């Protein structure tokens, strides 16, 4: 079964009154960033300034062995833009890499902020390694007393030498995303997608609680398992819970569970045929924390006796799409574990088995599954020793995290799973590239792709 959330796209009027953003960019300037890497980072940050509004605020932090605030949190208005441009252009490579210092300084900026914009996020970009940084960053988050403060962390890993496990771990601390930047000139596209998401947040601190509600004689109907690391057990037998830091406009999210329905010897009467087995409760805050939104739903089963005729049942395509999305993430995760132990061919077969299941399942909309199949094919190709030990593992982790959390990555179709605002910013970045003198970028789009209309799940 699937617990589904759908949000509408913002209207033009709503986009004009969107919640302003506080963005803290934490940039690695260690010696390995010298040359093209840092030049592209500078260019991307300058482009970022053109995407942000006058009410948005930007803070720029650079780190090598130490961390330093280059630009304190300031509004991106005309009176501050020139200063920000000068500071961006002053970025120079030097020293080593202490990621924890850079992130902790960002935490300090958030903690010391007397007034925060409704939406806050940290963008961390690095190409390096920092052994033990994960535990230090986690300790810093607790030490700064920010565990309950609403903000996200998006991590951008540059090239083949960064620690992808560290990036995934840091991003998960605050429900963020990990972007693997294999092609250096796509960093601006990654930033555009992440920033577009922040600019289209419609709810914060979203809690989804799924409770068992079966009663005698069917009290043994229960949640058998949940798919994805976002689920948390709520009580001993009562149910499961998900917390989302932010929810974007124009998205569909489906969270998959598996029910256990054991056989029973009880004969059901006409009044007992409809049985409520699950209750779902959703609470969320609006961006200004002035309104609490509450929604509820139930899952009811229609029961029949063993000697009664069962009508033909068609598989629900929407449920199956979400099921195979999480199964794809599991297959990639298993392929990573196998490849880590040198079993590359076995890992490839794990992914291929899911691809075959998807293509052979008639109830699936194969066009809708296209982006997932393409990512699976890319991950299957990464299960080769030379590629895996280079960039393959990083690409697979990024795809796995994106599928599981339903956040967009650039590993396959960059417009897949993007809402209108994200697509608009991404399109603008691509058009800007093509307009550059001697640009090698080929025009791949004639217009912004239309955002798919929201579809209704026929299951809870």
What does this molecule look like?
- The protein has 460 residues and is an alpha/beta fold.
- The chain is 37% helix and 24% strand.
- The protein has helices at 12-16, 36-51, 78-89, 99-112, 133-143, 164-173, 187-198, 317-340, 344-360, 370-382, 385-405, 420-435, and strands at 2-6, 21-28, 57-63, 67-75, 119-126, 152-158, 178-181, 201-212, 222-226, 231-234, 239-248, 252-260, 274-285, 292-302.
- A six-stranded mixed β-sheet has the order 4-3-2-5-6-7, with helices on both faces.
- Helix 6 (164-173) links the parallel strand 6 and strand 7.
- Helix 4 packs parallel to helix 5 (133-143).
- The model is unreliable at 442-460 (pLDDT under 50).
Q: What count of helical segments does DSSP give?
A: 12
From the 3D structure, determine the CATH topology of the largest domain: Rossmann fold
CATH superfamily of the largest domain: von Willebrand factor, type A domain
Largest sheet: 6 strands, mixed
**Compute the gyration radius: what is it?**
23 Å
CATH architecture of the largest domain: 3-Layer(aba) Sandwich
| Beta-strand proportion | 15-25%
- Assign an overall shape: globular
**Terminal Cα separation, in Å?**
7 Å
Task: Provide the spatial order of strands within the biggest beta sheet.
Answer: 4-3-2-5-6-7
Mean of pLDDT: 88
Number of strands: 14
Taken in chain order, the helices and strands follow as: EHEHEEHHEHEHEHEEEEEEEHHHHH
- List low-confidence stretches: 442-460
Structural class: alpha/beta
Report the helical percentage: 25-40%
CATH class of the largest domain: Alpha Beta
Domain count: 3
